[in-house]
């Protein structure tokens, strides 16, 4: 984008504004998904993103580029909220984790393709290369149009709309037989009846939560926050800056190093998809958060040693690149996909879409804060100092997982509510029930 003469501050704004404006799409997506349905909201997300990508591709100035970026951000906000909710509501319990993780692998595949296209198109003239790269990004989203012709609506949304017969037809398509379909339908209808009998509006219940809902919010919003404030977007968006600070000098080496980051991020999300319904959510979160903390400590220490000439340059660069690749790998095998899986499955039907939207908004705010401040923070306290701070936060995420995240593997969405004290446990006082590191609620003496 050299032809638009974008400054470092404008680069921060361009990168970070996407996350901030996407929170508007996420918040609006919850209400839209309840009003129009999950399937139509997916289509709306794709259409808005495509419009924004087209504006960016043709942008003659930084202002128009920002306008397109903001429009694309709204579409992304709709997408990151509705995709896991839709998949969680339509998937069988035994494979819900793997299916709900699929959006994350396609996001990572898109990042990898972005890195590769950046390398492939780097030889084009300055005014053309980045436009071609953005234009290529429009193509995959067009496929959503064809997908919408064949995918069914969420059976849970259909039940809420009083369309139980249509919901049963969908369940017959995604379950092993009529008996299982009827059993799932009965559970969904019971949950929908409970929602209908509640006199509170969704947002009133979220703003003045019961003890059960409060525990769900702590888990759902907390894991969304920790997913981002551990610095993953700083590594993804600014990996060339990090590698340059480590001592990588040539443009081709920088691009190849960022391609390696994208490869590790994509490969390990595929591993998470295989493991999440076999070993469970919580073991992956432990491996992820401990691994990320270790890699961030190594990266910060290596950058500090390089800055003070305490290690050979070649060795320091190699260790820094491995630490970055390791961090994104541990992120992708755990908290990256599990964050979205957890947020989409822990809330009851009456709150699910708008609570998930709130979680996505928290994710986008923290993502934008990291993306928009990283360059400035690293200038003020060095890149090594910035990653030392990320390492400390990542260590806190291990404690959070241990204390607040239950295991939900193999349970139906209706059963998961019971893990937080739902149903009969709803009447329990705040001090009676707590989430420990076990897979279930533990009653205090």
Low-confidence segments? 424-445
CATH architecture: Up-down Bundle
Strand content: under 5%
> What is the molecular shape?
globular
Q: What's this entry about, in short?
A:
The protein has 445 residues and is an all-alpha fold. It has helices at residues 8-36, 38-57, 62-90, 96-120, 126-136, 138-147, 155-160, 164-174, 178-197, 202-207, 211-229, 232-246, 251-275, 281-307, 313-333, 335-345, 352-404, 413-419; strands at 433-435, 441-443.
Descriptive keywords:
445 residues; mainly alpha; Growth Hormone, Chain: A; two-stranded antiparallel ribbon; 2 strands; globular; disordered C terminus; MFS_trans_sf; symport; Myo-inositol_Transporter
Topology:
Elements: H1 8-36, H2 38-57, H3 62-90, H4 96-120, H5 126-136, H6 138-147, H7 155-160, H8 164-174, H9 178-197, H10 202-207, H11 211-229, H12 232-246, H13 251-275, H14 281-307, H15 313-333, H16 335-345, H17 352-404, H18 413-419, E1 433-435, E2 441-443
Antiparallel strand pairs: 1-2
